[in-house]
Design a protein that fits this description.
CATH superfamily of the largest domain: Bira Bifunctional Protein, Domain 2
Strand content: 15-25%
Largest sheet: 8 strands, mixed
Helix content: 40-55%
Number of domains: 2
Strand order of the largest sheet: 1-5-6-11-10-9-7-8
Length: 457
């Protein structure tokens, strides 16, 4: 019995139509990245586990897909009297893993090629990443990230530029968004204010789940992590502080302004919002004190972008990291970056019907096949169209006209060119516009000009 074809859970195939729409998103994002002077790089799908482990926190490490060593990987496993656990076995049979994100491989890249790069180094990277997560709507095990980062500069102008780029990209895609901003130093100041500066990581990991599980379950998680109920009570009004961004910053100054981390975080946020006001971006950005982003490597500003018209998690996120390269032997190099979730952006655009009609049309002109002699007549004209930058194809088989027209219709090809025995004898073509239904006879020497006028009226 033949095996039934199936995909691993949390992964997807992409048909030509879906790929055309995805390319529309990628090309829009790339255009904006290049406009701001960012350069492309790529890194391998696999990294050494030593590169990946310990960079995402305990929860992130659990979601790493590990790759088995090649050959008889079990022959070197020492069992002894103890029963083998996955935790003990994994380091012995797996030295590599699929990348969890693009930021840690990027940090490794920067350190490895530091003598060849110009700093500040501005790069973008569009590649798939893998997470052993529980698949659900908007959450996949294999998905693309579109990352943009600048390393080697502490300036908050970089953060402001990232918000500007975010605005430009979503404006081009016609998605209305809100950019939520916070600062890990402010969160550290809050942890100090509630009397638990030692529990910053536990607090941020719990707060980061607020949207998914709600405040009651967040509080339960904090209690299980050993945070006292008095500290949790002090935390609540801070997290749900009302007012606009400037009002929140002013109110926070009275609460955490005396703490070292808190005062530094407030200073950074006030300067960032100064830049955003000057750039007329303060309307799409807001300070959100519940934003924590659970990844351990963030040290300053953190971002999350949400679509306003579709209920979904963040479609974009990132932040400042002051020493991510330090673990690879290059300390004190600050960077900031943001990642665009292409799959979630696709889902938003699909829900709101935002893809342009021509996004899925791969071929603009097709020549139908009426026989060997007629095809020879058509071929030079198809090539001329390609040289003019249009995508053109010639139907390869001398099939029934109905079948050929169905093919053109299914591929959403807007222009069909026909040349039978009569047209060849009279040096003409019959041109059909599939969108309007209009059909006209065109002299052979006018075909290219006529098609170009239709394509670019």
């Amino acid at each position: 019995m033949a095996q039934k074809p199936a995909l691993p859970k949390g992964t997807r195939d992409f048909s030509p139509e879906l790929m055309a729409r995805r390319d529309f998103i990628f090309n829009t994002i790339k255009t904006v990245f290049k406009r701001y002077g960012y350069q492309p790089i790529e890194t391998p799908a696999m990294e050494n586990l030593s590169t990946l482990l310990g960079k995402y926190g305990d929860e992130g490490d659990k979601l790493l897909f590990r790759v088995l060593n090649s050959g008889d990987f079990l022959s070197s496993v020492k069992q002894g009297d103890e029963s083998l656990t996955a935790e003990k076995l994994s380091p012995q049979i797996s030295e590599k893993g699929l990348r969890y994100d693009l930021t840690v491989p990027f940090a490794r890249f920067v350190v490895q090629y530091r003598n060849e790069l110009s700093f500040p180094f501005k790069r973008y990277q569009i590649q798939p990443v893998w997470r052993a997560d529980r698949p659900q709507k908007g959450r996949y095990r294999e998905f693309y990230q579109c990352d943009v980062d600048v390393v080697g500069s502490n300036s908050l102008l970089n953060e402001a530029e990232l918000v500007q780029m975010t605005h430009d990209i979503f404006d081009a895609l016609q998605i209305k968004v809100i950019v939520k901003i916070n600062n890990r130093k402010i969160l550290a100041g809050i942890a100090e204010y509630i009397g638990r500066p030692d529990a910053l990581i536990d607090i941020t990991v719990a707060i980061d789940k607020l949207d998914k599980i709600g405040i009651e379950q967040v509080n339960t998680e904090l209690i299980t992590k050993g945070i006292e109920s008095e500290a949790i009570e002090k935390l609540q009004p801070v997290l749900f502080m009302e007012g606009n961004s400037r009002e929140k910053l002013k109110a926070l100054d009275k609460i955490i302004g005396q703490t070292i981390s808190g005062s530094k975080g407030l200073e950074e946020m006030n300067l960032l919002f100064d830049f955003l006001e000057i750039m007329h971006l303060d309307k799409i950005a807001e300070l959100d004190l519940t934003l924590a982003r659970g990844l351990n490597y963030y040290t300053g500003a953190i971002f999350e972008v949400k679509a306003l018209d579709v209920p979904m998690g963040s479609i974009c996120g990132g932040g400042r990291y002051d020493d991510l390269t330090g673990v690879f032997g290059m300390p004190d190099v600050s960077g900031v970056g943001i990642s665009f979730g292409a799959d979630r952006i696709y889902d938003v655009m699909q829900t709101l019907n935002l893809f342009p009609e021509n996004a899925t049309a791969s071929t603009q002109v097709i020549f139908l096949n009426f026989g060997a002699k007629e095809v020879i007549y058509c071929l030079p004209y198809a090539n001329q169209l390609r040289q003019k930058g249009l995508s053109a194809e010639v139907f390869p088989d001398d099939a029934k006209l109905k079948k050929q027209m169905k093919y053109a219709d299914q591929k959403h090809i807007p222009l069909v060119v026909m040349a039978g025995e009569t047209e060849v004898a009279e040096q003409k073509f019959t041109l059909k516009n599939m969108l309007s239904g209009e059909q006209l006879e065109v002299a052979a020497d006018q075909l290219i000009t006529t098609i170009l006028k239709i394509q670019n009226p």
